[in-house]
Structures are given as structure tokens and as C-alpha cells.
């Protein structure tokens, strides 16, 4: 890892070991979700782990699920050892690209715990690659995971429980309103999630279901950046200097926004997108190297002052 990458990693480090040993405490009251049943997909690591941890600290029974059940079991053991008023439990191994897996997961939760009050769609995936190099299969895999998978979890939660009992849903998206060069496939699918959320919030409001999005900026987690290898180092080198906050975000900063949207304090909020990005939405992401030459033909007369 480069020197910049190391500095950012040390400043923003956020893995399960760190959370378990540091004196972190939610800013919300500790009985906020007492008696509530929550599902956090992808809750075994990264942002999902931080969200599941905070919900458990506030009294909820939190079901976490992903394809890697062993990782979820380790996360649950780590958090439950802290003695929170809530707890983390592990659902069946679930691939959110599988309709059957999702249906079985929601059925399991309702049968076992009797409710599904809160849902956080955190599972997703992407890889760094120039758009011209992305294969049809690679593009489809990301869209099926991030967009279709999120829809299927929302649909099953609504049809199996929330239609009749109400509930609150938060979808985790990523991206920048200026685009995400290098991860176009992910940005496109997450933009779809945000528009889907805007539609669902209107369809489901009569069932007392609120549904919102949290759009994180560049959040550093060990489990996230280690998957990118050298590309992750390049990403860090390019991005940090452009962010108005001059640092990456923490998973707990995302979790706080999620908790607020799930709570009764946001009872008049639905269909919204809350950005947790240190102002990153207002700057272009400098991930594309552009040569010092004119890239578009000129129409009309261009002053020499307008050229680089």
C-alpha cells in the first residue's frame, strides 16, 4: 500500500476488531429499538457490520445474512460478547441474486422471531474497471446483485410482513451525482435503486411503510478496500485530495444516518436520499487521467484564454 493509502487506512481503519475494542457508543438512546426485529443484508463486515452493531446496541434483534455464513457467525459472536441490550443472530446463507434464497430468509425471520420491522439492504458488489472493458456478464452480475437483489428483498419483506404491519426500509447506495468513472456499472445500478425507492415510497405509504436511501461517499473499511488490491491504492491516491472533507468516512458515520431514518424521529421522511460523503457529491471524481490536449472540437471562436 502506498504512503497515502497507509495514512488513510490508519486514520479511517474500521474492522470488527477495532469496533469491539474501542469505546464507541451510539448517539441514540439505548432502548430506541427495543423489541424490534431487523434484517441487515451483508451484515458480517464493513458498513453492514457497523449498522448491525449499532442496532443491537439500541435493543434490536438483528438478523444478518450473506453468502458467507461463517463470517456472519463470527461477527455475531464479536458483538454479542459486548453485552448490548439487543443481539445479533445469523440467518441462513443467502445470495441476494437468488429469489428462493431471499424468500426463504424472510420466511425464516418471521417464523423464528414473529416480525420484520426494520430492513437495511446493504448487500452489494462491484469491481474497478473502465467501462469499455466491462463484459456483458460482469455488468449483468453487478446489476442483478445491486438492483434486482435489493428489489427482491424489499418485495419479500413487504409481501410477507410489512404490507399488514408497516415498517421502515433503508437501501444503501453508492455513487456521485457527477458519475462514478471506473465503476459505472455499480453507479448505474445504485441510481436505479434510488429511483426504485422513490417509486416504492409512494406505492407502499398506505401500508405505513417508509423507504429511504443512504448514499455513502468513499467509506474506508478493511473488508472493502482489501478486495481491490493495487486498484484500491490508486483509488485512494486519486480521491482523498479531491474530497472537501480531506478524509474518508467511517462506517459508523453511515450507520448513524441509517438509524435515524429507521427511527420514529424520521416518521415524516420517505423517498429521500441522505448523502454521507463529506461534500463529495459536489466535486468531480478525478479517476480518469486526461492528457493535456483538446478533447472536443470547437464550434465558433474560442479565446486563447479559455484553453489550458
Automatic annotation (TrEMBL):
It comes from the Eukaryota. Keywords: Fatty acid biosynthesis, Fatty acid metabolism, Lipid biosynthesis, Lipid metabolism, NADP, Oxidoreductase, Peroxisome, Phosphoprotein. Pathway: Lipid metabolism. Pfam families: adh_short_C2. GO terms for cellular component: peroxisome. The keyword Methyltransferase does not apply. It is found in: Peroxisome. InterPro entries: Peroxisomal_t2-enoyl-CoA_red, SDR_fam. One of its GO terms (molecular function) is trans-2-enoyl-CoA reductase (NADPH) activity. GO terms for biological process: fatty acid biosynthetic process; phytol metabolic process. This is Short-chain dehydrogenase/reductase SDR. It comes from Nitzschia inconspicua.
Amino acid at each position: 500500500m502506498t504512503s497515502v493509502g497507509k495514512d488513510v487506512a490508519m486514520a479511517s481503519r474500521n474492522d470488527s476488531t477495532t469496533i469491539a475494542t474501542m469505546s464507541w457508543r451510539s448517539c441514540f438512546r439505548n432502548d430506541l429499538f427495543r423489541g424490534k426485529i431487523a434484517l441487515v443484508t451483508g451484515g458480517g463486515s464493513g458498513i453492514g457490520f457497523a449498522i448491525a452493531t449499532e442496532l443491537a446496541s439500541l435493543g434490536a434483534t438483528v438478523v444478518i445474512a450473506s453468502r458467507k455464513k461463517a463470517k456472519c457467525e463470527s461477527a455475531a459472536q464479536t458483538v454479542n460478547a459486548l453485552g448490548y441490550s439487543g443481539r445479533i443472530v445469523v440467518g441462513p446463507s443467502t445470495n441476494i441474486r437468488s429469489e428462493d434464497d431471499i424468500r426463504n430468509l424472510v420466511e425464516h425471520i418471521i417464523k423464528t422471531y414473529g416480525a420484520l420491522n426494520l430492513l437495511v439492504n446493504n448487500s452489494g458488489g462491484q469491481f474497478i474497471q473502465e467501462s469499455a472493458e466491462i463484459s456483458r456478464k460482469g455488468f449483468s452480475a453487478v446489476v442483478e446483485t445491486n438492483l434486482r437483489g435489493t428489489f427482491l428483498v424489499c418485495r419479500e419483506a413487504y409481501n410477507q410482513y410489512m404490507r399488514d404491519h408497516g415498517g421502515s426500509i433503508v437501501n444503501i447506495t453508492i455513487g456521485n451525482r457527477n458519475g462514478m468513472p471506473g465503476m459505472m456499472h455499480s453507479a448505474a445500478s445504485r441510481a436505479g435503486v434510488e429511483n426504485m425507492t422513490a417509486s416504492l415510497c409512494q406505492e407502499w405509504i398506505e401500508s405505513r411503510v417508509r423507504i429511504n436511501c443512504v448514499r455513502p461517499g468513499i467509506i474506508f473499511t478493511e473488508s472493502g478496500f482489501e478486495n481491490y488490491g493495487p486498484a484500491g491504492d490508486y483509488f485512494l491516491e486519486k480521491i482523498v485530495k479531491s474530497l472537501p472533507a480531506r478524509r474518508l468516512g467511517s462506517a459508523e458515520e453511515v450507520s448513524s444516518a441509517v438509524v435515524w431514518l429507521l427511527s420514529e424521529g424520521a416518521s415524516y421522511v420517505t423517498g429521500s436520499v441522505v448523502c454521507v460523503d463529506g461534500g463529495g457529491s459536489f466535486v468531480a471524481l478525478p479517476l480518469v487521467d486526461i492528457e493535456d490536449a483538446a478533447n472536443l472540437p470547437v464550434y465558433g471562436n474560442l479565446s486563447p484564454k479559455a484553453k489550458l
